[in-house]
Amino acid sequence: MNVVTSDGTVAKALSVLDQVTAMGRPVRMRELLETSEFPKPTLYRLLQTLTNQRMLSYDKEQQTYAPGIRLVSLAHSAWSQASLAPIAAPHISALAASLREAIHLAQIDNGQVVFVDKRQASNRFETLARTGQVAPAYCTGVGKAILAHLSDDAQAQALRQQAFLKYTGATHTSAETLLRELEEIRADGIAFDREEHEVGIISIAAPILTNVGRVVGAISIATATNRHTLDGLNAFRPALLDCAALIGAEAQSWQSPSAPS
Question: Which CATH class for the 82-250 domain?
């Protein structure tokens, strides 16, 4: 049964769903109301709709909302069908085990990067990126690796979608400075996050390209500056590029539903 009647209602319901899942824990309505764009009656109606559709679950005793079983099922289907994760899984697992470092797999969507998988082969350092997390493309290693290899039209569109907020002293704050680096990345084949999104966090990233040069994602090794230097990350370059090439070869016939050209 489809209870939504317009795109506007769908967008509102998805906004509430995003708000609940972003909390990372069961949440009460009053907490949602504090940051919600909707008045209380609208928020309550949307929560009821999502609960009735099993996209959210409601704990009557605790009076909290949490992601529902239908959402879990849909997420699993999306992970299997619309992400590189199943193709890349054995390769990033092998890379993480070999290097004993955290490996991130990401794709781009509406100008932002989505982390679709992660391998943490050691407990020496825990990265903040989580599967399903969205991050800016302009100030992350994986994001810049993808942006650099988009077609001119797709790249221009993605750049228009960047906020260029200044997270650290190293963050790009304009398309002009970012474009200069993207040219270097395209020539070099490797991107770095130089503490651009978070102070103390660096990464080396490689694009995942099919045999015809279409970029479908990126992988990175992320770490802390108290464990590695940017120059030190260069030691991982050959293994990272080999892993990206293996994934790209297997992804030759795979097409993300929203993949840019």
Answer: alpha beta
